[in-house]
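Recall the central idea of this unit: under ordinary conditions, the amino acid sequence of a chain determines the structure it adopts. In this exercise we apply that idea directly, starting from the sequence alone.
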Amino acid sequence: MKRFILLFLVAVVLSGILSSCFLLDFLSSGYEKATKIVVNEVLPQQLALTPNATYICSRLESSVASGTIIVPDKVKMSTSNENAIIVRDWIVAKEESYFFLLDLNPGAFYAHPVKYILVSKSGSTTVMSAEWLPKINGEVPKELIQAIPSSNLVIQSNITLYKPTGIHLAYDFPQLTIRESEGVIIVQGLKSNESLFSYAQDAYLDVIHFFQAYKNARPYGTVEINGLVQSDAAQVLSAIDTMADKHNIVTIYIIAHGNVDYVRLGGYGFSAYQFKNRMAAYPNTKFNFLLGSCHSGSFINNLSSLSNVRLVLTASKSNESAWPDWDRYGSTNDYNPADVGTEWTSSIFERAKSILESSTKWAAVKSYASSHKIPTTSAILYQAHWGALGLNSTYGFYYNLDLCSRVNKESPQIYKSW
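Accordingly, the structure predicted from this sequence is:
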């Protein structure tokens, strides 16, 4: 009898072990089978369409239930007289399924090319091209917001992303004699649940610190600074009204996600035409405009037609992405790895810092502004733009600080009125 009981207990234990192993195998096999389909069938087809692209294909941690709706994370336009962006593309899971994201510009700000891949439990596949992260049942999954996907979720890639290290620049300028009355609007348009939020926040803080030091170093004239972050970024047009009413020079810096003639601020979309129309309403105010979003070069076509726009600087061409801070790309290292935020922003303001800390360079900037009859701030940013790219030998700037530009990922653009 005792032997029978012992054998029974052993059988129960073994049954439990085998059952749990079977259960674990059952739970894991779904994504394993789906991953094999994606790697062996879907990716070869999709990557053949863009053979030279860098890419990372990653998966969600869990499957999605039958009936799950997947749509691009698009947003409404900022005014009632402009219709919300209509989402015409979506995927509906017809059974329990497994979701994969093929990122064709990994690490970049949005919008940029991605593909949604859905593999059903029965093995059928659906692929949808998009430019934004997906909302799955109304929310962007947390694992897809990460700037660098978790290695255990990456199923295939041809690039390695490295987490940068750095610190914010410290600005301590000597006394700057400027008598111009200026307004500065600094906008960080990403919410905390959006991809690359921390990088955008670092870029915003660097620009805030720069202009605060710029303001404190001026014994004459007036500099008013207005910082708008996350949801408050949607008030940018009202902020332009307020500044333009009080100052004859207004500088606007924006870091955000965007697309052609479009920038996303505080959860709302703003068009290039809205900024153009707002600036046109103040013909006696001179504007500088800096935009760090993807496809930001498209704004130049609109703003350059205004006679009161002095300078427009953008992180990229109209058909390019914009990028966060990198210390390394492949075998290429950054010349200034101590920077933070975004490569474009940190490069410009590091060069501007060098100009303002040098009496010789500062004198040259004032002379340049006077001879061209432009605001001193326009002159500083103009020289800093070329200096950031290592194309300003007059000021002793020979190295391109923008690593993303050096490896042909972005091409900073410029318009000047003089």
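The domain at 181-416 is CATH 3.40.50 (Rossmann fold).
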